[in-house]
Amino acid sequence: MTPMLVGIYTCTMSERLILGIESSCDETGLALVALPETGAPRLLSHALHSQIDMHQAYGGVVPELASRDHIRRVVPLARQVLGEASKTMADVDVVAYTKGPGLAGALLVGAGVACALGAALSKPLLGVHHLEGHLLSPFLSADPPEFPFVALLVSGGHTQLMRVDGVGRYELLGETVDDAAGEAFDKSAKLMGLPYPGGPHLSRLAGGGRADAFDLPRPMLRSGNLDFSFAGLKTAVRTHLVRLGLLEQVDKLADPENQAALADLAASTQAAIVEVLVKKSLAALKSTGLKRVVVAGGVGANKLLREQLDRACAKRGVRVHYPELHLCTDNGAMIALAAAMRLQSGQAVLSTEPAFDVRPRWDLSTV
């Protein structure tokens, strides 16, 4: 596939303009992608609002608050991306939105706005799978992949290995049987008293610790399959915190000795998660015989994961592709891109009748 360039571009009359709306959890994202008659889709503009500050007081996402904030943000963000691309809603040819999976109320906001725009402006709609957006997001990078490849999806509550032979051609190789990698980061961080969202805070704390300080389990590393399990790791972290006397003892965290112990535990936790992800990915490459891997989703921004996977794959002559760092989190660009690539491959089913339906639980392999 022709490389896609990231930036702000003008859209010619021979191109179709796709508006993408992402509202599956705690980020509101809008984007415009231009789909030419030939060649690769191009990102024209995108805007994102994160709800991190709002949810920090509660230690996690509050679904009702998330939905209400999406309502407040989606229209101003739509105006922003249209303005940056010097376009109006009349110029939009297709309205794409995240249909699932995600929080039901949050998804309904994006679906509702898309249906309203479609009805008011007589524009066709396209519901997009959130994880397909993540999976295809590296095609917006400076080093886009080519089909086929193995995909490691590490987004929120999802950790999956897929064989990807083309748009809509996905074979599930393995998935988490309980906690996902992102949940292991966030839940372990919360046990350590770190603020929401815990994963990035744990990774930063780990930078000052020793990865071999604590002997933590590598769940299902030798299971003989490509499935994942991280619940046991979270339990082991809790056990060590109890032994240290630091579980839910925020008042003790100011002590330098305690801070050092937490840094070591954070580094050991991150090392355990990354080792499992890397070795399972290598096993997937071996079982499929493929020489290309794509990493997508929020955990894909983890520096240690990138370093270790790059090193391991370089030894095996395997190419590794990632989304741009600012597109690892949920965003409208990946939704608009997924819609564009489905249209381009002839796999899209456009709707002219607003259905206003969402799928909070939706298996990517069934798309």
Can you walk through the features of this model?
With 367 residues, the chain is of the alpha/beta class. The chain folds into two domains: 16-137 and 328-366, Nucleotidyltransferase, domain 5 (2-Layer Sandwich); 146-322, Nucleotidyltransferase, domain 5 (2-Layer Sandwich). The protein contains ten helices and ten strands. It has helices at 52-56, 63-84, 104-121, 130-136, 181-191, 198-206, 231-244, 256-288, 303-315, 332-345; strands spanning 16-22, 27-35, 42-50, 94-100, 125-129, 149-155, 158-166, 169-175, 292-296, 319-321. The strands form two sheets. Strands 3-2-1-4-5 form a five-stranded mixed sheet, with helices on both faces.
Number of strands: 10
Strand order of the largest sheet: 3-2-1-4-5
What's the number of structural domains? 2
SSE succession: EEEHHEHEHEEEHHHHEHEH
Structural class: alpha/beta
Query: What's the main sheet like?
Result: 5 strands, mixed
- Give the distance, in angstroms, between the N- and C-terminal Cα atoms: 22 Å
CATH superfamily of the largest domain: ATPase, nucleotide binding domain
Oligomer: single chain
The coarse overall form would be globular
* Overall mean confidence score, pLDDT: 93
CATH class of the largest domain: Alpha Beta
